[in-house]
Amino acid sequence: MTDGWNARSGPPYTAGQPVPSPWWSDALADPWRDPYTPAHVVVPSAQESTGPAPEAVADPDAPRRSLTPILLICLVTALLAGGLGGTLGFVFAVRSGLANSTGNNLGATQPQAPAAANRAPESNAGIVDKVLPSVVTVRVTGAIGSGFVVSTDGYVVTNDHVVEGGGDAMSVSFSDGSTAPAKLVGRDPESDIAVIKVAKSGLTAVSLGDSDAIAVGDPVLAFGSPLALVNTVTAGIVSALDRTIQAGDPGGTTRYYAAIQTDAAVNQGNSGGPLVNAAGQVVGVNSVIRSVSGTETEAGNIGLAFAIPINQAKRIAGDIIDHGKARRTVIGAEVVTGTSTTGAKLRTVDAAGPAGAAGLKAGDVITKLDNHVVEDGIDLIALVRKFAPGAVVPVEYRRGTKAQNASVTLVADSN
Length: 415
Hints:
- The chain crosses the membrane at residues 70-94.
- The chain has helices at residues 46-49, 68-95, 124-131, 160-163, 310-323, 354-357, 377-386; strands spanning 135-140, 143-149, 155-159, 170-173, 179-188, 193-198, 207-208, 219-224, 232-247, 255-262, 274-276, 281-289, 305-309, 329-330, 333-335, 344-349, 365-369, 372-373, 392-399, 402-409, 411-412.
- Among the domains are: 124-198, Trypsin-like serine proteases (Thrombin, subunit H, Beta Barrel), CATH 2.40.10.10; 207-323, Trypsin-like serine proteases (Thrombin, subunit H), CATH 2.40.10; 329-412, Pdz3 Domain.
- The chain is 17% helix and 30% strand.
């Protein structure tokens, strides 16, 4: 009996001879073989013995090759491919004009119009787009202000105090950055309105509204160049109407306004710019600000600004253009100022003037003009100058303890 570990090979095999039987070919007949063993011996056939050699089995104890280099190579390759793909995609997007578009993989994104072009005409942005081309920055010697174009051939309305002392050294700039020289047509210091002519044609003129049709609470926009910040627009509401203002430098011209009060932010440099309603129409000329500062150079917006009503400004500008000077509306009486009496007390009355013709006398106290309460003489002067010569206004006055009424036809000053 043998287990084959020291088996010796037989004589060499010669082609054509019968295939010799293996040494264990008689194992099945081995009388000592355990018939119940799970192992058994299979005698291969001649065909099987001459078939292909069995595949080699890997040695489980052999050391394995590391996968780390392969993984690193794959990672680097993926990163390079992604970077190259992203770069090419961006280049192609820019060349096709889609670099700034947004979208998804559900369809191509169409180019969109600029956002400003989509604003409704009645929106603030729509109003600004309509009005701003007509607003100018007025530059005079050592000063800067604002104005607005009222005719296509170059007439511009501004404040008298903007052009005061400017002489002929004057120019304007438009919202598109273009500039043009300008010359003074005429000015009216007492109303604070001036007209200049720009050496440029084909301009866009503003649309003028009706300042008598506005109400407290109406939204407004103020245009101009506050603190030399050109093309500035601020928003607010009409805070009050017929707010009487006395303004002017000491020793200079005293100006009176029955003004539109607004809380739109207005600062130095806004003077002469337009106050515009929700329809894009000019209803006032920004002129005065109220400040807690003691000096004009330190004055700033505190939500109290005043504009000359456009009906008054339009009339005065028309006089300047047509006649070279404005007509001043008067009532034909001299008033007492600085008294504690409620109302405007008449010091003297011109018998041939409007007040005298209506029956008023010296000593009478006017308490209402056109249904507007008159607190003092300043109120009366400012309210009278708001109206055009020839206007008929109702007046309430007090003579002694008796209240009376009259209708006064206002006239232009003879000067």
